[in-house]
Amino acid sequence: MVSMRSIAWFLAAALAVPVAVHAQDKDHGRDLSGMWIVQDPGSGSWSEWFDNVPKPQLRPEIITDNEAIAASERAGNVVNRMPRTASCPVGNLPMMMASSPPLNIVASRDEILIGAESNRGRFIYTDGRPHPDVKAPSYVPSGFGHSVGRWEGDTLVVDTIGFAPRVCDSRRPVMLTPGGGRAKDTTHLVERYRLASPDELSVTFTWEDPTVLLAPHTYSYTYKRLAEGIPIENNEEAPTGPQPKYITDQVEK
Amino acid sequence: MRLHVLAALVMVLGSAPAALAQGGGSAARPDLSGYWELRFDSFNVPAAALTAPAQAAAEARRKKDLEAIRGCLNIGMPALMNDRATLDIRQSAGVIGMVAKSPSSTRYVYTDGRKHPDAEELEGTTNGHSVGRWDGGTLVVDTVGFNERGITAIPGGGYRTARSRLTEQYRLAADGQQLVVTFTWTDATVFRRPHAYSFRYYKVPSISEPRVTNCIANDAARARFLTEAPAPAPAR
């Protein structure tokens, strides 16, 4: 005969399982892992898409600088002729997050990888570490900056500083943000990642930089999950035959 | 009263098997996430038994790999796993990411049960396409879909081709402070029999910044170092 006490123990043990599952479901809402493609409204033009955000309130000198860049491009300065050197920063966060190659996200407990085009990407530390001293000589700035994240309910809040002051681009030696802003050493970015549904990721970007903006600039992107997408690789073949001229020129010096 | 209790018990237990299956699978899996480095005693690499064509191609392959290094191309597999800078492995429920510091694509190992794409859909990459499954505490990874770009050299001899297949077994050791990986390459055009070797990685608490080697392809001194034959010491 099963006693009421035995039944109560069974019940207590069984009830504990759904509680654990509920916690796991909550974690599942936090697992951003997967391949995600940004939802471009279909402009067909990179610059139109990139700037298709609420207008930022730019400082007058940034507006003037943007006009100068546009005039230079109209005059034919459309090819980057600046050679890459060891001091050239790697990465471009605003471009990567807006580009059509899918983002590959792997979210572990302590760190989140965001790769693009199966290539280099971002690292978001979620282990509680602070930003390093990005003004220290030992810090090497990049176009991805330094990112730390924390969860606020079902939203991952990512804080990024430590962008490179300049980039190696003869056309515009600054990293542009959507709408004509800048990401540089004085810039602070806050991103908010949330799964609107299992197959839809919403990311809201808020840029702050008093040397660029009169007020924080906020816009959002939606990314759709590419189930079982295959990572592609920005993969150049090793050069064959004669060496590129920029190599031979320098080797001969 | 008793009927009500039993009815509740039946309802609750009815949901339990699904819940246990959902939670049990992932709970039993080791978490390979962490920063891992190779040290002087990390390698158990026997010589590969190469086919005659592979032996004949060795020097040409060496030069091709050198060109890839000079050009800062994605190094790919297996060089990504040989990287002497710290390797970052990140594990989520359905995919594992591996990032080396040298020029390379992030490597993704899908553990969500998917299969390799059909051959006609699979464009070869330096890392190939990897799927993994857990066999107890061991992650078994199967990789196909390579191309012949990047660094193709395989430890012990031989090289990666588009026909290569790689099987890896990942196992944590020393209370999670070591990661032992056994690599087995099969490729009838290169190996007379499957070529297996093992690496033992040590867990380290942090990784140095910046996370990416800023490889400069047009660095003339670097190009000279890589491509010119070293001058032998003068005879005494």
- Give the termini separation of chain A: 96 Å
Q: Structural class, from secondary structure content of chain A?
A: alpha+beta
Q: CATH homologous superfamily of chain B, by name?
A: Calycin beta-barrel core domain
Q: What's the story with the biggest beta sheet of chain A? A: 9 strands, mixed, barrel
Low-confidence stretches of chain B: 1-26
Outline the secondary-structure elements:
The complex is a heterodimer of chains A (253) and B (236).
Chain A (H helix, E strand, L loop, with lengths): L3 H27 L3 E5 L7 H5 L9 H15 L18 H6 L4 E5 L3 E6 L2 E7 L20 E7 L2 E7 L13 E3 L3 E3 L4 E10 L2 E9 L8 E9 L19 H8 L1
Parallel strand pairs in A: 4-5
Antiparallel strand pairs in A: 1-2, 1-11, 2-3, 3-4, 5-6, 6-9, 7-8, 9-10, 10-11
Chain B lengths: L1 H26 L6 E11 L7 H19 L8 H4 L4 E5 L3 E5 L7 E4 L18 E7 L2 E7 L20 E9 L4 E9 L8 E10 L15 H8 L9
Parallel strand pairs in B: 4-5
Antiparallel strand pairs in B: 1-2, 1-9, 2-3, 3-4, 5-6, 6-7, 7-8, 8-9
Folded structure, characterized:
Chain A is α+β, with helices and mostly antiparallel strands and 253 residues long. Chain A has one domain (31-227). Chain A contains five helices and eleven strands; from the N terminus they run αβαααββββββββββα. The longest helix of chain A has 27 residues, at 4-30. Chain A is globular. Mean pLDDT of chain A is 83; it is low at 1-26 and 238-253. With 236 residues, chain B is of the alpha+beta class. Chain B has one domain (28-226): Beta Barrel (Lipocalin). Chain B contains four helices and nine strands. In chain B, strands 1-2-3-4-5-6-7-8-9 form a nine-stranded mixed barrel. In chain B, a hairpin with a 7-residue loop joins β3 and β4. In chain B, α2 (52-70) runs antiparallel to α4. The termini of chain B are far apart. In chain B, 34% of the residues are buried. The chains are: A alpha+beta (253), B alpha+beta (236). Chains A and B meet through α1, β2, β3, β4 and α5 of A and α1, α2, β2, β3 and α4 of B.
